[in-house]
Amino acid sequence: MNRLARRISRAIDTGGPLSIAAFMAMALHDREDGFYASREAIGARGAFVTAPEISQMFGELLGLWCVQAWRDQGAPRRAYLVELGPGRATLIQDALRAARLAPDFLGSIEVVLVEAGAAQQALQRERMRDAPVAIRWIEQWSAIASDRPIFVLANEFLDALPVLQFVMTERGWCERVITANGTRKLAFALAPDPTMLEIPNGRGAAEPGAVYEVSPASLALIDEVSGGIGRRGGAALFIDYGYCEGGFGETLQAVRQHKPADLLDAPGEADLSAHVDFAALARAAKSAGTEAHGPLSQGDFLRALGIEERAAELAARNPEHGTAIASAIDRLTGEAAMGKLFKAIAIVPRGAPAPPGF
Ligand code: SAH
Q1: Residue 53 Cα: closest atom of ligand 1
Q2: In sequence order, what are the residues at sequence separation of 6 or more whose Cβ sits closer than 8 angstroms to the Cβ of residue 82?
Q3: What is the 3-class SS of 246-273, one letter each residue?
Q4: What is the pLDDT averaged over residues 96-100?
């Protein structure tokens, strides 16, 4: 048992079993031992490699996406460009570099980076020292002022938000929780009484053993972001891995140094994430009064934004990088890589033009 597991098990001894969401919050965000307390969580040396770390084209296209969405809404003179969970700040750097093509856009935005992890934030500050525009950091979305239109980018952010799981039993849906099991080893267990949470029944018949997974934090975030966009204008783009039509099943996973790991073995040493339920996000955006476009597969989305043309242009200018550029395209858009599993969804005010790519 590592240090964080010992602390979690003591917390269970005194306070009772933890929900999976509470466990995830500790394993990811504990200030000393949480996964994101390490500066090297993401990237070749970290647990996983994200799309912006694969190629500069990803962030560049997303930057131009924001410029176009901003123009489509009348090029407001004062707007926020927000990134949720900027990681190593690679995406925002590439986005701002591409946006230099639109000095009127750069002159109108204030960049706000939403980052909960102190170590990640310190790394971002270092890497953004020479940024071409003013940048502000906040720890959570709710700290943003809703006084102007908001253009939001979020890549692999929602998958890191906590989920709850419920298992169908003879007693009904019971929450899956984490206990210390008397043996001082963390283990999954079921709450003895059925949950009072209403489990949507549109997913087909639930046999005993079926698992329902939900991320209340993601739905609450989409509700808040959509509320801001509905009131003030703007647009949001969420890209993540996930599914369009949810059945029952569990997707929570641990990844340690690029390999699957046990969920409970060494909390804080592995990344924990769950697949995103895109249909639920679209419903949340609509019920908050905005329009949702997509989900589209990442491959289709990036091709619609012109990634192949951009790759050809880059390769013509840097022939020595031709093979690397072709392999990046394959990783980002290929069906066997990120092209199909990853999806993009956009949120815009009712009546606004469809955003680029959708
Ligand atoms: N978007 C980046 C990083 C993805 S990893 C990329 O594509 O490379 C997830 C990021 O979200 C990390 O920076 C992590 O510290 C941050 N994060 C995770 N949960 C968060 C939360 N609840 N609030 C704010 N930031 C969070």
Answers
A1: 8
A2: 111, 112, 113, 114, 144, 150, 151, 152, 153
A3: CCCCCCCEEEECCEEECCCCCCCCCEEE
A4: 97
127, pLDDT greater than 70? yes
Give the pLDDT of residue 37: 82
d(CA 24, CA 160): 9
Residues with CB under 6 A from ligand 1: 36, 42, 50, 52-53, 85-87, 91, 114-117, 120, 140, 155-157, 160-161
At 152, list the tokens: 């939001």
Nearest to 96, CA basis, from 87, 88, 105: 105
Alpha-carbon distances of 121 from 89, 114, 118, 126, 182, rounded to whole Å? 9, 9, 5, 9, 38
Task: State the sign of the Cα–Cα–Cα–Cα dihedral 154, 159, 164, 169.
Answer: positive
Mutate to test the pocket of ligand 1, among 115, 224, 273 (most ligand atoms within 8 A of CB): 115
Confidence of residue 118 (pLDDT cuts 50, 70, 90): confident
SS3 for 62?
helix
Residues 36, 29: Cα–Cα separation, whole Å: 6
Q: Report whether 5 contacts 11 (CB < 8 A).
A: no
Which residue's entry shows tokens 């013509």?
316
Q: Rounded CA gap, 215 and 163, in Å?
A: 4
Residues 210-229 have a mean pLDDT of 96
Expressed in angstroms and rounded, the spacing between residue 157 Cα and the centre of ligand 1 is: 5
- For the segment 234-250, what is each residue's pLDDT rounded down to a tens digit? 999 999 999 988 778 89
**C-alpha to C-alpha distance for 173 and 198, rounded to whole angstroms:** 9
What's phi and psi for 46, nearest 5 deg? -90, -155
Q: What is the DSSP letter of 204?
A: -
How much is the pTM?
A: 0.96
DSSP 8-state class, residue 146: -
Question: Percentages helix, strand, coil for the chain, rounded to the nearest 5?
Answer: 40, 25, 35
- Tell me if 127 sits within 8 A of 137, measured CB to CB: no
39 pLDDT exceeds 70?
Answer: no
